[in-house]
Amino acid sequence: MQAKKRYILVFVSCAFLAYCYFGGYRLKVAPHRPRRAQHESAKDGGVQPYAQLPSFMGYEHRKPLSNDSNAPQTASKKKPAVAAACRMETCFDFTKCYDQFLVYVYPPEPLNSLGAAPPSSANYQKILTAIQESRYHTSDPAAACLFVLGIDTLDRDSLSEDYVRNVPSRLARLSHWNNGRNHIIFNLYSGTWPDYAEHSLGFDAGEAILAKASMSVLQMRHGFDVSIPLFHKQFPLRAGATGSVQSNNFPANKKYLLAFKGKRYVHGIGSETRNSLFHLHNGRDMVMVTTCRHGKSWRELQDNRCDEDNREYDRYDYETLLQNSTFCLVPRGRRLGSFRFLEALQAGCIPVLLSNAWVLPFESKIDWKQAAIWADERLLLQVPDIVRSISAERIFALRQQTQVLWERYFGSIEKIVFTTFEIIRERLPDYPVRSQLVWNTAPGALLTLPTFADSSRFMPFQLNAMGVEPRHNYTAVIYVQIGAALGPNAALYKLVRTITKSQFVDRILILWAADRPLPLKKRWPPTFHIPLHVIALGGSSRAVAGSPTAQSGPEARPSISQRFLPYEEIQTDAVLSLDEDAILNTDELDFAYTVWRDFPERIVGYPARAHFWDDSKNAWGYTSKWTNYYSIVLTGAAFYHRYYNYLYTNWLSLLLLKTVQQSSNCEDILMNLLVSHVTRKPPIKVTQRKGYKDRETGRSPWNDPDHFIQRQSCLNTFAAVFGYMPLIRSNLRMDPMLYRDPVSNLRKKYRQIELVGS
Amino acid sequence: MDLSSSLIQNAKQSKLRMTKCKSLLGIEPRNINTFHVKENILNIPTYTLLTIVVICAVWLFCDISGHRDRFFYAKRDSVALDLSLSHTQEVLLRSDSEYRGRNVNCTFWDCLNIYKCEHDTLKVYIYPLQEFLDEQSDKVATTLSSEYFQILEAVLNSRYYTSNPNEACLFLPSLDLLNQDVFDKHLAGPALASLNFWDRGENHLIFNMLPGNAPTYNTILDVNVDNAIVLGGGFDTWTYRPGFDVSIPIWSPLLQQAEAAHATAHRKYLLIVAQLNLLPQHVRSLRELSRSSNSAEQLLLLGACENNELITRCGSMHHAKRWDYPRVLARGKFCFVGRSLRTGQPDLLEAMSQSCIPVLAIDNFVLPFEDVIDWSLAVIRIRESEIHSIMRKLDSISNVKIVEMQKQVQWLYGKYFKDLKTITITTLEVLESRIFPLQARSSRKWNAISKNSRSTFNPLFLTSLAPKSQGFTAVILTYDRVESLFLLIQKLAVVPSLQSILVIWNNQRKAPPHLSTFPSIAKPLKIIQTRENKLSNRFYPYPEIETEAILTIDDDIIMLTSDELDFGYEVWREFPDHIVGFPSRIHVWDNATMRWHYESEWTNQISMVLTGAAFHHKYWSHMYTYAMPGDIKHWVDDHMNCEDIAMNFLVANITNNPPIKVTPRKKFKCPECTNTEMLSADLNHMRERSACIDRFSKIYGRMPLRTVEFRADPVLFRDNFPDKLKRYNDIGSL
User: Fold this and answer.
1) Region B472-487: what's the mean pLDDT?
2) Where is the Exostosin GT47 domain (chain A) (predicted)?
C-alpha cells in the first residue's frame, strides 16, 4: 500500500516535471497578453470555451450618436457622384412616380434635311408601339415617371446597318433629357469588332436606366439597370408563339441529351469556348456542331478543324435539334447573350449556360435555377457529367418552368417591355413588391397586380402553394340593364328571393344601369340578415378608386363594363355575377359555388357558349348553339374570383374597354378571354341548364339578331388586340354526384337541379 | 479510467497515437483518483509502464503542440480546440501602411479559382490559430472574439470542414476581422498576406461584421483583402460584389440569451423604434411623428436609459417605464431599423428574434443573404427621405399580410439566423450553391414555409392541355383471369384514344398465355411478367409506357363503354394532374370510434377514385414507386391491399387536388363486391381499408384527401338532343 502510494507520488512528480520541462515554458510568456490567462481558466471551468472570450461588439458601437455627428451623412452623399455608380436613390427622381407609373415616349425624330425619315429598326418601332398602346403610356411629359427615347438605340454596333449616328447631339436636343434622369434606354448590341466592349454605346447614357441585353456582372449597375434578353428581328410584338412543349411526358425521352449548332469565330473575343465544343461532340446523345462559315472572309481565318466541323454541321438541322434535345447549350458568342437562349427556352430545351459573368434576363426577379443550368466556361469538359447527373424529376420541372417563363415574360416584345417596366416599378416607393413565388409561377407578375391586395391570400393563384382555401361565401352581383316593369313577381325579385335562400350568400349587390328609376326600397323582397345594396350607375357614374373607366365623361353613356368594377361592397373572394332575368334555383347556386371553390381561378357557371374558327369567313365565329364543347361561360350566371374584377378594370387594354363601351355588349366575352388568358384553362360549365334567361322578358337585347352579330365581331376585335385567341375548349360539365341517377331523390343533395331540364 | 487502460494497450502495441496522447494530458490531474480505485488491480510493472507512457505522452504532446495541424485533434473534442488556443503560434509582422484595399472588379468568374473546387462538395480549410505581432511595437494584429471563435467552431464541426489544405476549395483564416474598431488595420493586411496559402486572397473567406471606422465608415473593411471573398455585415450596393461577396447579418450578443417571441397580430404598437444609434435627423423626424396625435398611440419611441446598458430601453419622458430589450420588440408589429454610422445594424436580428417585422430605412443596404432570401416577404423597406410617411405606409398593410410577414420573419430567423452557427452554415450554403449551382436550392425552397402542412407544390404545372394525339396506355394488372382479361383487351382495343396496352402478369407460378393466343387487336400490346406478386407492380413506371396518361384498369372491369373511356381520357386531358376515373369512394370521420371510416356507399360526395379504372399521369407512377412517404409502399405490398388508397393519398398530398369522378357509372364488379379467394369477406375487407386510411393519414400527419360533390359528364349528357350529334352518346348509367 505504502509502496504504491510512493509510486504514485513519483509518477505524478515525473509527469509534472516533464510537463514543466517541455510544455511549461508557455506559462512564462506574454505577460502583456492577459487574454491567454483567460483561456487557461476557461479550460477548467465547464462552460463553453467562447464564453470567456470578449465579444466583438460592445455598447460603444451602438451608443446614441451626438447631434453633431453628421459625418456619415456627408460620406454617403459624396459617394455616387458618377453615373457609373447610379442607384435609384441617387439617379432617379421619384417625385412623379407616386400615384401612377406613366411612361412618355418622345415623338419621332424630325425628318432630316434630305427629307428622309430618321432610321429606326422594326424592333424599336415595336417597342414604342407596345408602350404607346399600353396603359403605361401618357402623352403628357409632365405626368411621366419614365421617358423612352424616340431614337433607336437597340443596335449600337457601329458596323451595323441599324446604327443611328449622332446620338449625342440628338440627345442634347431632347427637352427632358436632364442627363438621362428617369430615362430608359433599350439596347441589344453594344461595342463592335474587335473588342465588343460592353459599355461602348457610342453616346453617354448618363443617369438613364439601361435595359440592355448581354450585360455582365461587372457592368451592370446593381438594382438600377435591367438585363433584357436578346431577341431577333422577327420577334412578334404581341402574344407570339406559345412554348412548343405541348406534351408533358415523364421521362422526356428525347433523342439527344445535349445539343448545340452554331457559328464559331476561330479567334478573337469569346471564341475559345465555342472552339473547344467539339470535345463534347459524340454524335450520339451529345451533338455539338459548329461552323466557321460566317462573314465574307471566313476562309482566310479558318483553322484546320473547319472543314471537318463544317461537314458535321451540315448533317444536323437546328430546329430538329432544338425540339429533340433535353438540354441545349447556350455558349457565349462575341457578346455574352445570344438568340439561342430564348429559342431554347421556347422549345423547352433546358438552357445550359456557358457564358461566364452574364447577367441573365430579369435576373433580379426570375429564379433561373428553376429553368436553366449553369455551367462554367472554365470547366467545359465537366458539362457532359453535369447534364447526365440531373435527375428525371428535375428535368421534368425545369422543362415546365421554361414554358412558364417563356409564356409569361419572354414570348413577345410587349411582354419583355412590360416586364422591364414592372421591375422598375417595384423599386418605386409605395408600389408593393411581388414575392419571388409570384414572379416565378404562372400567371406571373404581369398578371398579378400587387395593388389589388398585399397578400396572395386574396388572389386565386397561389392558394395551394400557401395551403389555404378561398375565403367563404359569395357576393351576388345582379346587373340590371333592361329594367322591365317590376311587378311583384318580376324575374328580378324572384332572383333576389332565390339568392336569399342560398346558404353561402354573403350579400347582394344590385347594379342599376337601367333608365327606369330605382324601385322603392320597400318593394324589394325581404333579404333578412343578408345585406342588399343597390347602386345606381346611370349617368352619375360612381367613382371607384383606381378605375378610370368609371369617370367616363358626362356625354358618354356608362359603359357596360361597370358591372365588373371592383366595388368595395364585394368583400368575398367569390363573385356571383347575374343578369337581372337569370332564372336559377338555390340548389344551382349552391352547387356551382361548391364547384367554384375547387377551381377558384376559373369562371364557373351556367350559360356556355363556344367559339370556332370559321374558314369561310377567315374569322372567329361565336355560337350559342348546343355543341359538344364550349369555351365561354357567360357572366350572366357565373361565379368568378373577385380579383378578375380588378384585373378587368385596371389591366385590360383601354382599346378593349372602349370596344365594350361603344357596343354596350360583349363584356361577358371579354371577361372570358381575360380569365382564359390568365389561366390558360377553359371555364367550367355546371349541370345541364343551358337557357338561363327568363324568356318572357321580351325586351331583352338578346333577342336582337344584331346583338349576336356584334358579339361575333367583338370576338374578332378582342382576339386581334390580345394578339391571339385565348379561349380554350372544354368537353365536360360538372354535375352533382348523383345527378339523374336512378336512385331515390331523397338521397340526393341537390334535388332542385334534378328537375331542371336543358 | 477507460482511457488510461486503453493507453496501456496502446503502449503495448508500441504505437502511440497522437490523439490519445492529447486526451491523456487532458485528464492528467485526475490520474490520482484512478489509482486509488484501481489499486488492487495495478501492480508495479504496470506502474512503471504507465509512468513511461505518461512521460512519452507528455513529450509527444509537447513535440506536436507547435504543429500547425492542430484542428485535426480538435475535431474530436471541443475542449481541445480551446486548449489549442493557448498554443497559438506567433508570427512577427512588419506593419504595412500601404492600403490597396481589395480588387473591386472581382467576380465569381475570375477571382475564384474554380479548379480548387472540383470535388463534389464544398470543403473549407481553417488556418490554425496564430498570433500576429508587430515586429517593432509587439502589438497584436487582432484579438480573437467569442463570436469569431463560434464561427470557427461551426465550420470546424460542419460537413464542410477539411483538415487537408490540398483538397480545400475555400480557406478560412483564423484571423478575427469581425470588427474593424478592434483590430489594427495596418497589421491585418500583412497578417493575411503571411498566411501559407494566401496567394493574393484567392478562395479565402473574410468574415467581417463591422467594417470601416471613424470618420469615413466605409462599408467594406479597409484591409488588403485582395481577391478574397468578403462575407460582410454592412455592405451597401456600391461595395457589394454581386455573386461574389456574401452579405451576412450582424450578430447581436444580446441574442445569446434572448427568447424568441411568436408571431401574432395582437401587438400593441404598430411601430417600435428602439435603435440607439440612429442618425440625429432620423430621430428628429420620428419624434415629430410620435408627437402628432394620430400616431402617438401606435408608435413607441425608446432611447437609452441612464445606466447605458444595452439590455434596457427607456422612453423619452423622465418617469417613463424601463423596458427589457430586446423583449420589448415583441410588443410591436413593426420594428424600425435605420441608418447609423455604419450601414448594417445588429438591430435587424434583434427585431427578427422577436418576430417583429423590420422596417428598413437604409438606402442601398444589401440585406443578409440577399441572393437567396426573398426579403419582400419579411421586411418593409422605406427610403430614408420618406421616413415622415412611415406610419401611413405601415397603416395601409392588412392584418393578414402582417401575420404572414411575422410568420416569415420567425421562420427565417429560426432557419438562418438564430445563432452564429446557423449563420455560418447558411453562409457556407450560399457559397456552396454558387460553386455547385447544380445542387443549389431554388428560391422556393430557400423561402418556403413549412408552417402550413397543407401548402403544396404541384409538380405538374404545365398549363397547356395534354395533346390529344398522344392517347393513353392501358395498364392491366392481372393474375390468372385470362378469359376476362381477353374480353377487356378486346373492349379496350376499340377505344379511339387508346395508344397501347400493357398487361402486367403478376402470377409467378404460371407463365402468361402466349402472345399469339391473345385476341388480335389493332393496337400494340405488351405483356410483362413480374418477378413478385406485388400490388405496386401496377404503378411501376414501365419504360414501355410512352404516353403521359396511364389508364390503370382491373382485368374484370369490362362494363365500361368505349365512349366512357374516351371521355374519361378527355377529362384527364383537362385535369392532367388529377386522378380521373370511374369507381369512387369516400372517407368519413367516425366520431364514435374516433377513426377514419372507408365508405363505398353511393353518396353525394367522393374523395377517392379507385385505380381499378382510372387515368393518371405517369409521373404519379414514378412518385408511387420511388417517393412514397414512410413505409406505405411496403405495407401495401405485404398486405396486398389499399394500393388505390395509397395512390389517392399520394396525389392529394402533393397537389391538394381532389380526384375527379367521370360519368354516373357506379356498379363495378369490384373486389369489394365479390368473394374471391384472394380477398376475405366484405366486412373484413372494408375494415382493413378503413385501417389503411387511418394508417396513411398518420404517416402523412394530416388527412390530405379532399371531398368534392361533383362529377364530370359530357356537355350534352342526358340532353334532349339527337344522339348522333352527341360526341359521347354511349354513356351508361350506374
Assistant:
1) 93
2) 100-390
